[in-house]
Automatic annotation (TrEMBL):
InterPro entries: NUDIX_hydrolase-like_dom_sf (IPR015797), NUDIX_hydrolase_dom (IPR000086), NUDT19 (IPR039121). PANTHER family: ACYL-COENZYME A DIPHOSPHATASE NUDT19, TESTOSTERONE-REGULATED PROTEIN RP2. GO terms for molecular function: hydrolase activity, acting on acid anhydrides, in phosphorus-containing anhydrides; metal ion binding. It comes from the Bacteria. The keyword Metal-binding applies. Keywords: Hydrolase, Magnesium, Manganese, Metal-binding. This is Nudix hydrolase domain-containing protein. Residues 4-208 form the Nudix hydrolase domain. Its cofactor is Mn(2+); Mg(2+).
């Protein structure tokens, strides 16, 4: 059990594909200390430099995000900055542009990769990266989506805000995360079918948000379908039944915990 809770941000990057709405998913390497072998979205813990007030910013203010999250402005700023930083670090997608209404079209060159690596090593901050290129963070490209809190019985606990964002035109999500051994664009229903078959293990927040995302036909609907302010936090309990083990949500819904297939 752990009483320490770390704030984190996770981003559902979506695009319109041939089968309809698709989401970018990573499979974490089995050796990871948290959720090893599980399919998840790009994301991670808040870094102290995510609170930098000097960062160039376009779109809804930290105060507006604080209303959406039900938190103070400092934490709201940290969460939005962490979402943008982690999306670039883990998927090579940068939610930024030279001005409000514009998005940088391509961030795949060697110079970008060098700076992505510097972000990972913490030799460079997101503020420094954007300022050096004359860019601003585009908070309007993100939408609040869900809020999950790891229950007390877990050894590692996270208070995680889930965002949804469209893949910017001209950019490509890339398998650049050293924490993953697979990256794929999948329709939510297809990913959930693999999960229920035991082929794609994932934690309850991932499977539940995939089921929520699957209600939307396309990117425009997903971005327009954000929940009301503030997000309602979900901290699941657990239940053992003859049918299996389930995460029990505050509204009574049960999310099955599928045991991964053995090799």
């Amino acid at each position: 059990m752990s009483d320490e809770i770390r704030h984190a941000a996770t981003v559902l990057i979506v695009r319109d594909g041939a089968p309809g709405l698709e989401v970018y998913l990573l499979r974490r390497t089995k050796g990871m200390p948290f959720a090893g072998g599980m399919t998840a979205y790009p994301g991670g813990g808040v870094d102290e430099r995510d609170a930098d007030t000097e960062i160039g910013w376009a779109g809804p203010s930290p105060a507006e995000w604080a209303t959406a999250f039900g938190c103070d402005e400092r934490l709201a700023r940290e969460l939005v900055c962490a979402a943008v930083r982690e999306t670039f670090e883990e998927a090579g997608v940068l939610l930024a542009g030279p001005a409000e209404g514009a998005v940088v079209p391509d961030v795949s060159g060697d110079d970008w990769e060098e700076q992505r690596q510097a972000l990972l090593s913490r030799d460079l901050s997101l503020t420094e990266l954007l300022a050096g290129r004359g860019l601003v963070l585009r908070s309007d490209l993100l939408r609040p989506f869900a809020h999950w809190i790891t229950p007390p019985m877990e050894s590692r606990r996270y208070d995680t805000k889930f965002f949804v964002a469209a893949l910017p035109a001209g950019q490509e999500a890339r398998d650049v995360s050293g924490e993953a051994d697979e990256a794929a664009w999948l329709a939510p229903a297809a990913a959930l079918a693999e999960h229920h078959a035991g082929d794609r293990p994932m934690l309850p927040p991932t499977s539940h948000t995939l089921s929520q995302l699957g209600r939307f036909a396309d990117v425009a609907a997903a971005l327009a379908g954000s929940p009301p302010d503030p997000l309602e936090p979900i901290m699941p309990g657990f239940e053992e039944t003859p049918e299996g083990r389930f995460a029990v949500l505050p509204n009574g819904d049960r999310v099955p915990l599928v045991v991964p297939k053995k090799n």
